[in-house]
Structure formats: C-alpha cells, structure tokens
Amino acid sequence: MPDAAEKLETLLADDAGAFVGAQALAQWLKLAALRRALRQPRRALDAVHRALALAPLDFMALVMRAGLLERLEDAAAGEAWGAAIAQKPETPLPAPLAAALSAGEAFHAAWQARRAEQLAQAGKAALDASGETDAEREDMEWRLARFRDNILQKTRVYHSTPTHFHYPGLVEREFHPRHTTPWLADVEAGFEAIRAEMQALIQSERAELEPYVQYDQHQPLDQWQPLNHSPDWSAIHLLRHGRVVEGNAAQAPRTMEILSRLPQPQVPGASPNAMFSLLAPHTAIPPHVGVDNTRLVCHLPLVVPSGCWFRVGAETREWREGEAFAFDDTIEHEALNPSDLLRVVLIFDVWHPGLSAPERQAVAATVASQGARDR
Fold it and tell me: Are residues 203 and 351 in the same domain?
C-alpha cells in the first residue's frame, strides 16, 4: 500500500494532465483514502484539499476532510462537519458512509452546544449589568439569542419583502413582543365568547364561507397556486378591505365589539380585515409573503388539533388555543395542519407599532390612493 500511494502521488504530481474533471477528483480522493489507511492524516488532508479545489462542494471530500480534522484534533473540525452535513445527498448512503456521517453529526452537535454556551456566557455579563426594564431586557435577550443562532447557523436571516408596500425603517421581527402589542390581552380575554360565536356561525349554515385565496389563474402568483380557489383554506370574513361583511358580522357581535377596540388600520378599500380562517385536515399553506409591512397580522387560535404549526422566518410555533400573537406577514411564513381535524383561527390586522399617528394617516392616504388591494 505505501508503494501504491507513492506511485499515485507521483503520477498526480508529474502528469496532472493525465486526469481531468471527475477522474482527477476520484484519483485525489483515492490518494487521500490510501494516506488515511497508512495513518498519515496530514498527507491525506493535503490530498483531500486538492480534491476540494476541483469540487468545493463534493460530499465525499467534505466528509473525509471533516473526519481527518477530527482525528487531528483540529479546532476547525466542528465547522468542517457542518459544511459536510450541509451537502448530505437525499439518496440513501452506503452503510460505512452513513455510519461516518452519523458520528460526524454527533460530533457537530456537541461542538455546537459548546459554542452556544460560550456565546451565551460572553454576553451574559453585559446583560446582568444593564439597568433595563423587564420588557427591554426581554427584547435584548431575544435579539442576543437570535444573534447566537445566526452565528451558529441554526437560523438564517429573513427580511421583510412585501409584495406591494414597503415602508422603510420599521422593525423587522417575525413575532412581535407582547409589550408592543398589549391589546392582545383583551383579545385573549374574549376567547370563549369569540370561539362560541364562531362555532354558532358555522353550525347555523348561514355563514358566508369562501376560499381564502382567490386570484385569476393568469396572475403571476406561484406562491398561492396550490390553494388558489381551494376550499382547503377558507374564510368567514367579518371585515374585508375596510367594509363590514354584514351577514357574518351580525352573528358575531362580541367578536366585532372586541375588534372595534383594536388599533386596526383604517384604509378605504384595503383595511381593516378580520376573519375566521379554516384550514382543512392535512393541508399545508405554502411559504409566502404579504402585501404591506405597515401592518401586523394577528392570530387568536380557536380550534387547534394536535401537531398544527406556524412558521414565520426562522421561528416556528405551535398554535395554542386562546394564546394570541402578532407577526409580520411580509416575512416569509407558512403553516401546516397535519391532523384529521379542522383548524380554526381568528385573523385580523393592526398597525405596525413603529408607526406614529401622523405616519399612519399618511400611509393610509397613500395606500388608499392606489385603489383597493388585498391587504
């Protein structure tokens, strides 16, 4: 075997033109395997690096590199395993490679846990010494936690990307904290009454139920294609584009009274909006973004079978009956009802808390001047 490794290395060094493309990559990986078997990890690593120079994202080469760095107790081993794991193919792996990858995933997870603890301790002293209020401290802790997750590449960075209206300078945050949306407590206090009205409305068979997504087929809206005009995601509108849907609203007086106390946008032809949203069993709402970042969308979960979840950007939550939240729907979001039962949520919009009163008036006038839109 030593002779075979020396001969192959000499051939690759003296006559590099003899091998091209995939053949050259295979020969460098073969040399790396020979050197590894000879317990020459540094020379094996040199050969792997030559292979990666030809194909930087080659899965086998990345696995070999990570394993060699781990054997050498190199500080870069954890990051190297992360790079290899990211290129894992979807097809089944041979048993030896699958075992190596499984061990690498365990090594990477332990390395990530150590890094997470180090990062948390690094920022703890500064937080402990701050004189912030509880709400400010909660915000800081959330931002630092997300900062650490971004460093560790546990999360990716998402931004507000509205389809129509983008107001600059507003805070981009998937789920907005409770201290900026204190009126959610009033909505939660009305949970039982709201749910009872929803159930009575559905059982009465007088509800005006329609597909939530309704666009002409020719419009360029791929994000909605699976659910366009589908009853799998339907709505009982109470307020729609700034108008009361009398047939439904008349049967939900308590819900309407609660909504009247919220800071909903008043935009002729566009807002406010409020509806009971019904998601059928085994239905997914695909990743999509909303129209306008000057408002937040709020959910009050009313009927939630086990396993239903909702993702906004890098954060995924399970809906919990009676627990409301506000989120920025111009950040990519999606949902799933994997159960055999119907999921029902009250959805309504409110102004983004970062807008001043004059800005709200100016935004309302500006949006209204563009005519009615699905906001």
Answer: yes
Looking up residue 40, the CATH number of its domain turns out to be: 1.25.40.10
Say which residue the tokens 């048993």 belong to: 95
- pTM over the 0.90 mark: no
Structural domain total, the chain: 2
Q: Taking a C-beta distance cutoff of 8 angstroms, is the pair 289, 327 a contact?
A: no
Return the pLDDT at 17.
58
Angle (CA) 334-191-269 rounded to 5° is 60
Residues 189-211 as b or e (16 or more Cβ within 10 Å = b) = ebbeebbebbeebbeeeebebee
Q: Name 295's Cβ contacts closer than 8 Å, sequence gap at least 6.
A: 265, 271, 349, 350, 351, 352, 375
The pLDDT > 90 percentage for the chain reads 72
Question: Around 265, how many Cα atoms within 13 Å sit in the side-chain half-sphere?
Answer: 35
DSSP secondary structure, 311-371, as one string: EETTEEEE--TT--EEE-TTS-EEEEE-SSS-EEEEEEEEE-TT--HHHHHHHHHHHHTT-
- 206 and 322 within one domain: yes
Count helices and strands (H / E) in the chain: 12, 11
Residue range(s) defining the domain that contains residue 37: 2-91
Residue 358 included in any domain:
yes
Q: Which pLDDT tens digit goes with each residue over 112-169?
A: 999 999 998 888 877 777 777 778 888 888 999 999 999 988 899 999 999 999 999 9
Using alpha carbons, select from 80, 49, 46, 43 the residue that is nearest to residue 63. 80
Half-sphere exposure of 187 (CA within 13 A, CB side): 28
CATH of residue 189's domain is 2.60.120.330
d(CA 311, CA 317): 6
Residue 76: name the closest of 66, 91, 86, 62 by CA: 66
Q: Residue 313 and residue 158: Cα distance in Å, rounded?
A: 6
Sheet of strand 333-337, all strands in order from the earlier edge strand to the far edge: 283-288, 333-337, 309-312, 315-318
Q: Which residues contact 304 (CB under 8 A, 6 or more apart)?
A: 318, 319, 320, 321, 343, 345
Which of residues 91, 124, 147 is at a domain's end? 91
Angle at 110 between CA 108 and CA 113, to 5 degrees: 110
